[in-house]
Amino acid sequence: MVAEDIILGPVVTEKSSDGIQNGKYTFRVNKKATKVDIKNAVEKLFEVKVLNVNTITVRGKEKRVGRNVGKTSDWKKAIVTIDTEVSDKTYMAKGGKETKISKKYKTAIDEFMGA
Fold first, then answer.
1. What does the DSSP assignment read for 15-54?
2. Which domains does the chain have, with CATH numbers?
3. For 79-95, what is each residue's pLDDT tens digit?
């Protein structure tokens, strides 16, 4: 699947807005998408580092118009946790030499909620 086909749009609620301060963003995703697909799509589209992906299948509700009873469709929601720390990583390379890696990704999703 293409990344644009996996992420359908943001879910904007009070609870999802509270999670933004902790680096948790909520998206409506394709029902057939896996956690790995969602992680790769978010990293590609928004250029962030994804730490964790939680998915929930939201069941459709019964709706009634007069005497007719119908059902809204089921959909899938993904809560994506991104890396919000801006510090550089250091590690020991061959020969005991310390090497520093600078982060090349963003620490927030600016396009979320139309910002």
1. HHHHHGGGTEEEEEE-TT--HHHHHHHHHHHH-B-EEEEE
2. 3-106 (3.30.70.330)
3. 999 988 866 777 777 77
